[in-house]
Amino acid sequence: MFEELTQFYDWFAARECANDYRVNVQSLDALDGWYTDPRTGNVHHRSGRFFSVIGVRVSTENRRPAAWSQPIILQPEIGILGIIAKRMGDSIYCLMQAKMEPGNVNLLQLSPTVQATRSNFTRVHRGSAVPYLDYFRSPHRGRPVFDSLQSEQGSWFLGKRNRNMIIEVAEDVPVLDDFCWLSVAQLAELIRVPNLVNMDARTVLSGIPFLTGDSDRAGAPLHSLGHILSWFTEVKSRNQLDRTVVPLAQLPEWERSGGVIHRPDGRHFSVIGVEVQASNREVRQWSQPMFRPAERGVIAFLGRHFAGTFHVLVHARTEAGTADVVEMSPTVACIPGNYAAAPEAERPRYLDLVLGASATQVLVDVVHSEEGGRFYHAENRYLVIDVGDSLPVDVPHDYCWMTIDQLTGFIRYGNHVNVGARCLLSCMTDLIPQEATS
């Protein structure tokens, strides 16, 4: 435990120096352990495990443009993202890990106690065992506070889910070299630091209110739970998502050249290869494909008070890999540069309102990395913006006003709240009062 965060920063710097990390961009054609199917162009691991890069063709009435094709990651395994929590004195502490991921812009970030794919924790790679895994396997060595199958980025994963868990323990837990206890209050501060708390930690930390009891705070919601459920069901029923897996080699507007899969116009993202060395990972050297976005994205909630209670504008959003047509998403989630020359009808709704917000309207503004195990230097600017009464009660049919507690409540259930919204919720802890101050 650290009495002051300066002690944490010293520890974190020491962990960075204690290990050797190297990541080099490599041609997809030269990745050790991977091969490209000569018939389809799809990229697979020779073990048949881990993940593959395939193509998908999508059409939906819920997006503009309404049809497109793209590469996507197929990883049907369900991994574990888990945090061990313990009450010590008057505070609740979480056991966090300083973990290297090849896609992180700064390599080392704070991750959950356990962050592992099924291939990893079943040791397909023949590496060392995942520490603390037994706390999250049945029978649990503690009380499950939060345990839910949650989706990953639907824009780049096809129906991918991970098990998000918080296990509260009473027993003493041995602390290994790359692990440390941090209080919930300290984590609330650290999550405001750019590129420090990784995506896997942020999605699990969105379930912290179920541990602290903050998910049952009183408020004056604009809409009842029944209304929100009816709205969500209506949007799912009204919209359609047609998705067909297709060979990578047959994707229109995409090409493979120089060992990279990309669009000639440079938009959206590319698929690259990397070679990795890490002295403290279960396997110390490996190669893999990674998705590399064209530039930094924006993930934002627009919010305002109704009857003294802060609400955020939730979007029922469809992505290429969404498992159940739509999920509850932030108001805006996109790479703005992709739409610089787009016609007005194809620009994301409310994007200009987000980009034009004044400093006095911004309640949360922090840049975070996305999943560093699959995405290379993928960053998003996370924003919460108070627009006052400039947005009305009535909004388009695929948007709905919710309180923070209402949206948090849906995190208990899979395929409801998407990963962008969960990460934003974790950034809002202790930053935004539920009730308006006079």
Contiguous runs where pLDDT drops below 50 for at least 5 residues:
none
Please estimate the helix content: 10-25%
CATH architecture of the domain at 218-241 and 295-427: Alpha-Beta Complex
Overall average pLDDT: 93
Percent in strands: 35-45%
Q: What is the radius of gyration computed over CA atoms, rounded to a whole number of angstroms?
A: 21 Å
Strand and helix map with partners:
Layout: H1 5-18, E1 21-26, E2 34-36, E3 43-45, E4 52-60, E5 67-74, E6 79-88, E7 91-100, E8 108-111, E9 114-116, H2 118-121, E10 143-151, E11 161-168, E12 179-183, H3 184-190, H4 199-205, H5 209-212, H6 225-238, E13 241-246, E14 255-257, E15 260-262, E16 269-278, E17 285-293, E18 297-306, E19 309-317, E20 327-329, E21 332-334, H7 351-355, E22 362-369, E23 379-386, E24 399-403, H8 404-409, H9 419-427
Parallel strand pairs: 6-11, 18-23
Antiparallel strand pairs: 1-16, 2-3, 4-5, 4-13, 6-7, 6-9, 7-8, 7-12, 10-11, 14-15, 16-17, 18-19, 18-21, 19-20, 19-24, 22-23
Helix pairs in contact: 4-9
What does this structure look like?
This is NDP-hexose 2,3-dehydratase family protein. Pfam families: Hexose_dehydrat (PF03559). Residues 7-207, 227-428 form the dTDP-4-dehydro-6-deoxy-alpha-D-glucopyranose 2,3-dehydratase domain. By secondary structure, the protein is of the alpha+beta class. The protein has a domain at 218-241 and 295-427: Alpha-Beta Complex (Nucleoside Triphosphate Pyrophosphohydrolase). Helices cover 16% and strands 35% of the residues. The strands form six sheets. Strands 6, 7, 8, 9, 10, 11 and 12 form a seven-stranded mixed sheet that branches. Strands 18, 19, 20, 21, 22, 23 and 24 form a seven-stranded mixed sheet that branches. A three-stranded antiparallel sheet has the order 1-16-17, with no helix packed on it. It is globular. It starts with a helix and ends in an 11-residue tail after the last helix.
